[in-house]
Write a structure and sequence with these properties.
Shape: elongated
Number of strands: 14
Number of helices: 9
Structural class: alpha+beta
Length: 358
């Protein structure tokens, strides 16, 4: 383990997901609100009573999700306001999310040259809980995840929650892990069908996607591949269940080796109430009285220090160490052998000398 300080660090990608996946105003217009209520509050629904023919597409979920401009009220990067269009729409295991710094745009991958809040990302988010629906999540707020560019963000499993009325500070620590391949370690890689870069998250996603497609005959809208998207009935009764409990049931048949090199972003969270009563009116004016502050929260994401913790797996007994030990042993025995020969010669010479003179 080694702590290495650097002059610049790559900032991670950040995905922001509202806990509510479908807005009530949109499901009302599509006559699906009652269906969702029956699905999640009564344990089942009679799908034949509803028109769900148009629910089998990514576009349906994007249309139902909270709008990006209404969700992200303000975004500040390194103490400067940035356009909300900087955030890209992505489909994840937690629904439709908005991602910053993915590297898939004209901005490239952003970096920082110093630590602290002013050198990171600040978000003002609006939950709009008056437009919430019945769903699998019981709380109010957002689920966020920080991840390496090119990886698959598993928001539901690896993300952290951010509730309303809070200022959440997320201090980042970067860890770089290097593992050894066989025979000294167990790391490895494999060619993936749907992703160009091998990561453990990508491999897992591909694995349970194949399982869901073979079991349900369709895929969840966020899963990769050419299979058709499940409609609401197929998602609720089949795809969601098998995707959620795929690894828990251990019926994987899935070979996802540990990567030989990977980056982990460790998050240290702290919370304070937001906004304070002193600045309550100020924030209302700042948002032109168009935002219910009961729905507001603030998130600061930043590096705590400009350093990389490097964890490198090493051979416990390598070839070079073997040569050194062999060389040391040979030197010891060779030195001992020469000394013994000299001593024998010396004793023999003394014996002959004593015999001759006596």
């Amino acid at each position: 383990m080694n702590l290495k300080y650097v002059s610049e660090l790559k900032f991670p990608a950040v995905a922001v997901c509202n806990v509510n996946k479908m807005r009530k105003s949109k499901t009302d217009a599509a006559n699906l609100t009652e269906l969702l209520s029956n699905m999640y509050t009564r344990g089942g629904a009679n799908f034949s009573q509803y028109d769900i023919s148009n629910t089998a597409s990514e576009e349906f979920y994007a249309e139902m999700a909270h709008d990006k401009q209404e969700t992200i009220l303000s975004a500040i990067w390194k103490h400067e306001f940035i356009e909300i269009d900087t955030f890209q729409t992505i489909y994840t295991d937690f629904g439709v999310c908005y991602a910053f710094n993915t590297g898939n745009d004209s901005y490239g991958i952003r970096t920082v040259a110093d630590s602290g809040v002013v050198n990171g990302l600040t978000l003002y988010l609006d939950t709009r809980q008056d437009d919430y629906n019945a769903g699998s999540q019981l709380g109010v707020g957002f689920q966020l995840v920080v991840y390496e560019q090119g990886d698959v963000p598993l928001v539901a499993d690896l993300g952290f929650g951010a509730g309303v009325g809070e200022d959440i500070r997320v201090g980042l620590e970067l860890t770089k892990i290097t593992n050894l391949p066989p025979p000294h370690g167990v790391c490895g890689s494999r060619t993936l069908k749907y992703y160009s870069k091998y990561t453990n998250n990508a491999c897992r996603t591909e694995c349970f996607t194949d399982h869901v497609v073979s079991t349900c005959g369709c895929r969840a809208f966020y899963m990769p591949g050419p299979a058709r998207v499940c409609d609401l009935e197929e998602s609720f009764l089949c795809a969601d269940y098998y995707a959620k409990y795929f690894f828990v049931r251990r019926e994987t048949g899935c070979d996802c080796p540990v990567p030989c090199s990977r980056i982990i972003y460790n998050t240290n969270l702290s919370h304070v109430k937001f906004p304070s009563k002193v600045f309550y009116d100020l924030y209302k004016r700042a948002f032109n009285n168009s935002v219910d502050l009961e729905n507001l929260l603030k998130v600061d994401i930043f590096y705590q220090e400009l350093g990389v913790e490097e964890i490198t797996q090493q051979e416990s007994y390598g070839f070079f160490q073997l040569l050194c030990d062999i060389g040391g042993s040979l030197g010891l025995w060779l030195g001992g052998s020469i000394l013994t020969i000299v001593e024998i010669f010396d004793i023999s010479l003394k014996g002959c000398f004593n015999t001759y003179w006596h």
